[in-house]
Amino acid sequence: MSKAQKSTMKWRWTALIVYLTICIYDFMAVPIYYGIARMGLDLSDYMSYLSEIEDPLVQMEYLKKLVSQHEPFTLKGGGLFHLSFGAILTGSALGNGK
What we know:
By secondary structure, the chain is mainly α. It is built from 4 helices and no strands.
């Protein structure tokens, strides 16, 4: 195996590890954190604090935080991030035969 092929293999593995790390963070770590952080929330305290706020728009934003779900960062923009990484990894795998 030539030196160029070895550096290509290192680059490919590095890109794969980076992509998998980002996906694990975005689809597993952050949603689990959202769930754990919400478990410690005392609903009666939250609602009493919410009733003290006079502005209905601010109340609505607080309620959104209570019932919101995590939207993966990498899926914003139509998932262009995943399409780009897929093209990079596919191109490096198919270009291996040259």
